[in-house]
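Q&A FORM
Asked by: J.P.
Topic: structure of DUF5648 domain-containing protein

PROVIDED:
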Amino acid sequence: MRFLLLTTLLWLGQLCYATTSVHARAPAGTAKVYSAMQPDLVDHVYTINKTELNFLISYYGFKLEGKDPDGTTTGFIHTSPQPSTVPLFRLYAIGRTDHLLTTSTEERDLAVKRLGYHLEGVLGYAYTEEGEGLVPFYRLHNSGAHDHYYTSSKEESEDAARNGWVNEGIVGYLFAS
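REPLIED BY: S.T.
REPLY: Here is the structure written out as tokens.
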């Protein structure tokens, strides 16, 4: 039932719509990327929608990551297409309890057709190359936990890699938080 509620929430467009950021360093037309984790299932999720975030916390036991009461800010992402940006797709595999983020349409399609993921929507629009004010968005995977983890911190990425996570590279570039 909870899966159905989450799917309904997502398909109503809640994943793709968020108010633009009021953060001082965030450009107009961007939204904060929130990071949360479900500790019992070891599942990290990333969203720009505060309503979805609160739903996941209230009904699924997700916890905001970081020490800030408003959660760790992974960065800021455009909410609509901009020059030099591509969609950052968010997928979920219920059997693996894993959220996957990718800018690759080929990887998205393969994950849906062969790996048991379903497309939840577009998280936002990420840059494909480095630029002023942008930071890499690193992707790591832990096969034992069946979990993907994303961070804009090189130090966190390196620490995770030393602790059993495999660095899968840079998914795209976000505005620094």
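FOLLOW-UP: The radius of gyration is 15 Å.
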